[in-house]
Amino acid sequence: MSSIASVPADRKRIIGVLIVRTRRRTMLSPFFAKSEGLLLIDPATGARDFRRNPQRTTAATYDLIVGSGATHLVCGFIADSERNRLRMQGIDVRIGSCARSIGTLVRGFEDLPPA
How far apart are CA 59 and CA 33, in angstroms? Predict the structure, then answer.
């Protein structure tokens, strides 16, 4: 079993959510590499920032997450290898339901099952 690297105390808590957009709404992407982008949310202030994922590959998605400064991640699916690599970077990875709203996933992050 892999270990989770500790997050430095001065690192701000930012939750990243891999998303896909439809005509009517933005929702959790069911696929890691096929997500349209990463929505970064500061749960303390509600501030949001969207980062596109134009390449939509596993490597590009991993780099996007690590480069974003996210300390926590919600995804619909993640392979063990990517999950382990993100954990080694100190990112807490959780699995969410695509049927739930982004706000609900972020507010309930601690209750989501670990990936």
Answer: 8
